[in-house]
Amino acid sequence: MDTDDYAFDGETGLVKMRFRQFYDGVNSVKITYTGGVAEDAGGVPADLRLAATRQVTYWFQRRNQIGVSQISVTRQGSTRVSDPEEFLPDVARVIDDYMPKYA
Asked: How many other C-beta atoms are found inside a 10 Å radius of the C-beta of residue 32?
């Protein structure tokens, strides 16, 4: 099918036909999607590889602190550490540069 025959709605995730309708019934439509920035690690941009390495290193260093949101370091108070499920701020910025932007 030609890409002019359908439209993808990024907000809803729906694929809509432009000039006709999909056939009714179970298994009447098959969508094949290929995504990513490269076929192998060598094709991944250096900034993205570095960001992934930084994030994995951070997760590895905090592997014994899963679920910990604060660590007491001094008598004056405590230091907030980011949620282990969150990306580091600099990593999040790099990832955001590669995320698709829908109009």
From this structure: 4
Beta-carbon contacts of 79 under 8 Å, excluding residues fewer than 6 positions away, are 70, 71, 72, 73
Residue 65: domain span: 3-98
Number of domains in the chain: 1
Angle, alpha carbons 77-78-79 (nearest 5°): 135
User: The tokens of 31 are what?
Assistant: 């969508």
Q: Is pLDDT above 70 for 83?
A: no
Q: Give, as one character, the DSSP assignment of residue 25.
A: S
Predicted TM-score (pTM) of the model is 0.53
